[in-house]
Amino acid sequence: MKFKAFRIFIPLYSIFITASTMAQQTADPQKTLVEKLVKAGFENVGIYQEKKDAYLFYENRLYRWEIDGLSQVILVAASELGDSIHLHVVPLYNQIPVAVVSTGIHGYQKMVSGNSEMNPVDSSISVNLNSDSVRTIQRRLHLQNSPFRKIDLIFLPGLRFQYGNFSNPLEKRISISTIVQTSLWKGNLLSAEVLIPFFNDLQQSFEGDIRLEAATLNQLFRLPKNLFIYASAGIFPYTVRLTSSINYKRYGVSTEIRKYLLNGRLSAGGTFGLTGYMDYGGGNLNYWPIDQFNFALYTEYREPTLDLFTRLTAGKFLYNDYAVRLDFKRRFHESTLGVFIIKSNYKVTPSETGTVGGISLTLPISSRKATKPAPFRMKLAKYFDYEYRERTVDPLATTYRTNNDWNEIVLNLNPDYIKKQLMKP
To answer: Cβ(398)–Cβ(317) under 8 Å?
Structure first.
């Protein structure tokens, strides 16, 4: 009797093992893919498949360079989905689509392995800035691993030079800014910055003070046809004139409207601000009415072969001067080097208006991969921006900062730039 029971048990056990193995083999690849990306540290992850087209959404706050994050997402997807799938990857910024990167998984695998005989730029990968086609799909998804209400404490080194007097011809300040950032809802960024000087011999004595530098509430809206609106409210810092004895800030509202054409190569837009002066030096808060209206209109073309930017800006700036600024910038992998010239009607002398030139520089400073996003995380800022002017006394074409990182995102997720970088071995 025991022998018969044992003979019955063996087939049942075999059936159980076989069924368990088959279940593992037929596990939902979409669910597995989402779990892997979430475990890796990506946020706002979701996937929707319709026949042979798979739409994969994700947000990267893990890798410094957006291309590294995008490459990793495509490779993980290629390992989980079938070779016949046509993959559409949608990078997000606070749940707002930035671009749509489309590739056949089999073609991409051949391309990265160096076995592709086709032109990968034309056939393997296509990138479209217009995300109107995926907005309805995104609404159907419940994105996994939300970044909302997670706090980042970011450290940003600071360096400022300006020409001084005969006894101290080159004045400088070395500092670090501690920036607290979080997002509360779709398209939102809440930011506060405290500046801590380590060394200061600038003429303005207040430059040596620890102080609240900025506090902003930012909101991004993406409308159809590649139209973006970025609205900001709060306290905005800017570079005050050399002769100022008070560390003025601006408070109020600012809006930028930008339209992209030619799949991101050409853009045009403007920034508009309604602000007032304020300062809180010496423990006293002083503020003036919000009655200062400033604006700047611009157009920019990004030449894809050399990744060269040409930007023309004209408007009424913070010292009520009307000015024109021309920028030329060249992108080198993650770094950017540029030159600019400004012509303003600001009175340098009673009989002379101002013209000034200079250079701008953006360099990566953090590690390529940060720690995974968490309820609270500390990290170094991704990039260091610096602008040097040949004349620092006169504040020609001065603008304030709203401390949003949208420009950094679109800089690294431009369609031509994505193609060029993904094709590199």
So the answer is: yes
